[in-house]
Amino acid sequence: MNESAVSLFEKLVQADPPDDVHVLFDTACVIGGSIAGLLAARVLSDRARRVVVVEPDDILAETGSRPGVPQDQQVHTLLPAGQLWVERWIPGITKEAQDHGAHFVPDKGTTVINGVPQAPDGEGHHLLTVGRPLLEALIRNRVTSLPNVSVLRGQATGLQYRDDAVSAVRYVATADADQGDRSAGVIDADFVVDAMGRSSRLSNWLRQSGYDQPRLERLEAPINYATALFERPVKVADLETASALALFAPQYPSGGVSVAAAQPIEGEQWIVMLMGYGDRRPGRTIGEFREACTKLPPVFTTATAGAVIGDVVTYHQAESRRRHFAEVSRFPARLVSVGDAVASFNPIYGQGMSSAALHASCLAAYLGGGPDLGAAAREFFRLQQVVVDAAWAVSAGGDAARLDAENGTEVPEDVRQQRWAMEQITAAAVLDGNVTRAFNHVSYMLRHPVTLADPQLLTRAVAANEAAMTK
Q1: Are 230 and 266 within 8 A, CB to CB?
Q2: Of 97, 224, 395, 407, which is least packed with CB atoms within 10 Å of its CB?
């Protein structure tokens, strides 16, 4: 199973958009216009004569934040793998983001673990540092400019079926500011994508129509974000450290900060995020925010030295979630889910947008594999499960370990051994560049987490840690 999962993951990571595609549908409908939905619409634009994105927010307006993405003012990291995948589907998007003031900065030892920088991995990875509203707007503009993609502003209210397959999407149009009516309508559709996010209503719709609901798995991960913007008077090229990610184990003194991130973004600004677990809420005021940054690596003091722009913006998320679509027995054909509607992780791991891009690759692989469109999309969900399992192993695995440590929970021996091995890899990542490279490949979603279980890699990590202890 592990070899198969690793092989599938590698294929999805390396897959390019198909060159020669056949139109499969007259109309495809995507419910939800966030990044996951937009990338799904991009894939479907090759396979359908018409793609309709149903979204209640006015996503075609030239505005920043929108109600459907309450967390978009927080730091959003597009992992190196995610940047590659988005660039494959929307060529030139990285340059376009840079033209709007975003930065494509080298990742040179910018990750700090318990106060110690990672050892250089020699890979030359780059991070696209950009505000979430700008990145989403750029992707949206490119996708909706395709001649066969349109946006219908409305709230999806349910599905219709024919012969055990989805045949239409019901919706209620969003009323304009000067109108009080909300007219109902139906979109006939040959294929439907649920991209409604972590609060997706698809499970309820399925239950009401006699289909099976996917099992919902929850993992307690109470996180508290505090993010602020600061003026950045220094050009990125002149910065000694262009971005930073600081990670702290529970026992490490960091003023209640478990994770911190600082990135230069558009508008000559720094965006700085502090995150605490449980009842730790670092930096609720600017004074508290700056004080907390003095206990972090020097780049955080530099980033918060300029004039503050606006207020500290906070965000709370109580748990990570995933829906197990691959387990469902009775499920309608011509229907899939993507993005947070399938799995929403602890956002600090930066997997959300990159996972959405890889879900698009899963969709392309499924549609290009000659699927039986009269049956449930089990092959799609099998491919997607590989992606979700990989991301979940990193984020949920770390959160579960932290939760068990704080609660004093006894865990099975095999889990204890897995966590010990991960602790060895993480500790050695500040000592040995080869270990760092393997660790970063998994963190950046370029390789499957199973690759960190390589006995040779673990032996190398243990040796590096033991050597450091004897110095």
Answers
A1: no
A2: 407
Separation CA 338–CA 317 (nearest Å): 20
- Measured from the Cβ of residue 214, the count of other Cβ atoms closer than 10 Å reads 21
Q: Which pLDDT tens digit goes with each residue over 293-319? A: 988 888 889 999 999 998 888 888 888
- Domains in the chain, CATH or no CATH each: 8-69+136-217+324-395 (3.50.50.60), 84-132+218-318 (3.30.9), 404-470 (no CATH)
Token output for 285: 């005021």
Contact, 47 vs 28, CB < 8 A?
yes
Average pLDDT value for the chain: 86
pLDDT in tens, 420-468: 888 899 889 888 999 999 988 998 888 999 999 899 999 999 999 999 8
Its pTM surpasses 0.85: yes
Give the CA dihedral 55, 351, 270, 300, nearest 10 degrees.
150
